[in-house]
Amino acid sequence: MGTFAIEAHQLVKTFGAARALDGFDLTVETGQIAGFLGPNGSGKSTTIRVLLGMLRADSGTADVLGLDSWRDAVDLHRRLAYVAGDVSLWPNLTGGEIIDLLTRIHRGPRGSARRAQLLERFDLDPAKKARTYSKGNRQKVALVAALCSDVELYLFDEPTSGLDPLMEAVFTDEVRRLREQGRTVLLSSHILAEVEKLCDTVTIIRGGRAVESGTLAQLRHLTRSAVTATTTADPAVLRAAPGVHDLTRDNHYLRFDVDDSQISAVLGLLAQVGVQNLTISPPSLEELFLRHYGDDVGPAADLGKAERVR
User: Fold this and answer.
1) Every domain range in the chain assigned CATH 3.30.70.980
2) Architecture of 4-79+152-219 per CATH?
3) CA quadruple 133, 138, 140, 145: dihedral sign
4) Which top CATH class is 224-282?
5) What is the Cα–Cα distance from 76 to 59, expressed in whole angstroms?
6) What 3-state DSSP class applies to 97?
7) What is the pLDDT of residue 222?
8) Which residues of the chain fall below pLDDT 50?
């Protein structure tokens, strides 16, 4: 186990009668990409603002890069970069001027070359005034500024909001590059496929508490896999088997869920009845997420828009 870039323990933050964080814990190991999931109102953005020293927790501790996030906020901001999901820019400055302003304390020796490379990759015209930019282009300004900063930690809160799929792919490539360089990333996103592709660990927050935390492999071990098979045999023996759930049959096509602890036994039963085709799929991140939110949220595409009242 390496050192931790982020260690937050038992964070509590209230706004009047609303309890945004309710004993929340989060650890992020140095050099990892950590996913942070939960719909709007679950406490994600409040957590990130506490980690940035923009909000002071009512109780609990938040250490970032070995510093107290509230007491040492000025020193901390010299060592991290942050991108919000709804970026506001100075309207009368150009995109290039804003990038230079945001990176003046962070840019490394290759800053100018890196800036030019990122402007090309994100297809951003830095000569235009910020007031002329679309939401997607405002987001690109913030991403270019963050990604050309030579820092240890990157905090991304819905960073691809407003970007098209091509630009989302560019962002994914750039975050992978950060990991190769040994940098640490905390990525809050409602795009579950993005998190699944990028993240070493995932934390799911609900009602201001961490309800799941670990690697995807660890989280999947706690749940069931989906099995599809084609067979002409009677599936009654499978229906009665321990660990088999929701078995359905359509002609010769079977589908059911199986507890991971029972997969070996079920494979033996499948061999007995005889199958022509067999697929066993671990649960997707979407399925893991919906275990905790269920009907509280809509389809995966709308997870980031779901609202909860705390």
Assistant:
1) 224-282
2) 3-Layer(aba) Sandwich (3.40)
3) positive
4) alpha beta
5) 20
6) helix
7) 60
8) 1, 297-310
